[in-house]
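Why run this: before we spend reagent on co-expression, it is cheaper to look at a predicted model of the complex and decide which construct boundaries make sense. The entries below are exactly what would go into the expression plan.
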Amino acid sequence: DAKTTQPNSMESNEEEPVHLPCNHSTISGTDYIHWYRQLPSQGPEYVIHGLTSNVNNRMASLAIAEDRKSSTLILHRATLRDAAVYYCILEPSNTGKLIFGQGTTLQVKP
Amino acid sequence: DSGVTQTPKHLITATGQRVTLRCSPRSGDLSVYWYQQSLDQGLQFLIHYYNGEERAKGNILERFSAQQFPDLHSELNLSSLELGDSALYFCASSDRGTGTEAFFGQGTRLTVV
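The model came back. Tokens follow.
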């Protein structure tokens, strides 16, 4: 299974945009790219996912590189509630299997 | 509230024992997934069932087994428990089997003493 690489931690100021990078250089052509986040003592929460094209939803945007070897999760205006561990995840096609990495701990400063 | 219900929330048991963790998926979801989260291993995929059939398997130990019943709820059975099995066990569900949003429960915290 392909793996993802993320920075261990990032900081952001409240109400500023945040760009969370992820490298997945060994991604297969049919692997989905997912982002989930996890708050302490809670289960992971879905943020966004995509295959080849950039995606937007009410929570965030996902920018996928043309060669699909990297992606960036964009939070347009960080709030204190966005402080969490963010996981960039690959899902081999037709398995439903989410392969979690170590994630990025995002701190949001007021 | 994700709509996924896991019971029990906490479980303390002794080494060598067997336990059953239960998961009720969101209404209408056909897929159920099990994950283990420990401090040293992070979140690890264990197994995926779709409409009663096993769809994918991760590094699930032979001492662990799971099934999905006709009413779509699922159970994860852990036997011959070891100290290293202490972890958070999450269940998730989704409407399809791939390329879709999964909803996670609050987890069952298992402590083996």
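The radius of gyration of chain B is 13 Å. The first strand of chain B starts at residue 5 and ends at 7. Bring this page to Monday's planning discussion.
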